[in-house]
Amino acid sequence: MKPDNFETLPKFQRLQYLFSNHIRNPEDSPYSIENQPGLAEIAQEVDSKRLKAYESLFFNNLYDFFSNLFPILKAIVGDTRWQEIIREYLIKHRAKSPLFHELGQEFILFLQNEFESKPGDPDYMLELAHYEWVELALSIEEQEGFLNPLDVEPDLDSAYEVSPVAAPLAYEWPVHKIMVDQVVDTKPDCITTLLAFRDEEDQVQFIELSPVLYELVQAMTENSEQATVRALLHRLCKDLGLEKDKIEGFAVSILEDLIDMHLVRPIS
Predict the structure, then answer these.
(1) What is the DSSP letter of 88?
(2) Average pLDDT over residues 44-60
(3) What residue numbers bound the domain in which 70 lies?
């Protein structure tokens, strides 16, 4: 897509737009400097075979990267449809990050904002893609996780922070159960709540959380005022209509498990 001020841009920028538009969409954006005032002075027409080789190389690199990052999604939609989706991404999306490992997040933004689904595309495409992307995001997170001492005891009257390599997740679809040979066709009535984290061996793991436990971990993640676990639980009980005594009873054992898994630690 050419910008509105294309004709007034410097010649080299107009040449870049012609070339990049062709690489993104070779069928509808042929590369030609013919009828482009002044461009013949700084460039020559490129041999069609060379253009095809470059376009294929660019597309295949992106195709391979996204195929490795979203293997389940690719397998479910099929290779033909997957190629169409990658081409649509190239045509429509303008990535903000120049970093190759951040393209997965750019693909998520594309699915959110620009992607046009077709009959046969699963309704859970965005959520499944996000679920698959989280694994890469946590695996390359530069921050290190926690390593709690053995003598840390759970205390509801203390404030805790959640590991920077842990993320509570909530989906409308049970994305952790969707496989090539186990496709979910009907959206369940309840939300799927998970906790993704990188363990001590730098392996990304996913565990299923109860909705209440998800809300607690989420509250601890967003706990900028450093409220105690007991205070967070009381807020949840008020919001969810739960009994404080029952919630506090299981909260101690849950907190102990999170400490033992090095997913939370007391705020000093």
Answers:
(1) H
(2) 79
(3) 6-139
Other C-beta atoms closer than 10 Å to the C-beta of 179 total 11
The per-residue pLDDT for range 239-256, each reduced to its tens digit, is 888 877 778 878 899 999
Residue 39: band (very low, low, confident or very high) from pLDDT cuts 50, 70, 90: low
Question: Domain check: are 15 and 134 in the same one?
Answer: yes
Q: Which two tokens stand for residue 202?
A: 């730098």
pTM of the model: 0.86
- Please state, as a whole number, how many other Cβ atoms lie within 10 Å of the Cβ of residue 168: 21
| Angle, vertex CA 22, rays to CA 19 and CA 25, nearest 5 | 150
Rounded distance between C-alpha atoms, residue 220 and residue 211, angstroms:
14
CA angle 139, 75, 79 (to 5 degrees): 115
Q: Is 27 helix (H, G, I), strand (E, B) or coil?
A: coil
Residues 13 and 94 grouped into a single domain: yes
Q: Is 11 helix (H, G, I), strand (E, B) or coil?
A: helix
Long-range contacts of 12-17 (CB under 8 A, 24+ apart): 12/42, 14/39, 15/39, 15/42, 15/43
Give exposure, 93-129, as e/b (b: 16+ Cβ within 10 Å): beeeeeeeeebbbebbebbeeebeeeeeebebbbbbb
Backbone dihedral angles phi then psi of residue 210, each to the nearest 5 degrees: -70, 155
Mean pLDDT of 172-185: 88
User: Domain ends where: 79, 105, 139?
Assistant: 139
> For tokens 């509250």, what's the residue?
219
Instruction: Say how many domains are in the chain.
Output: 2
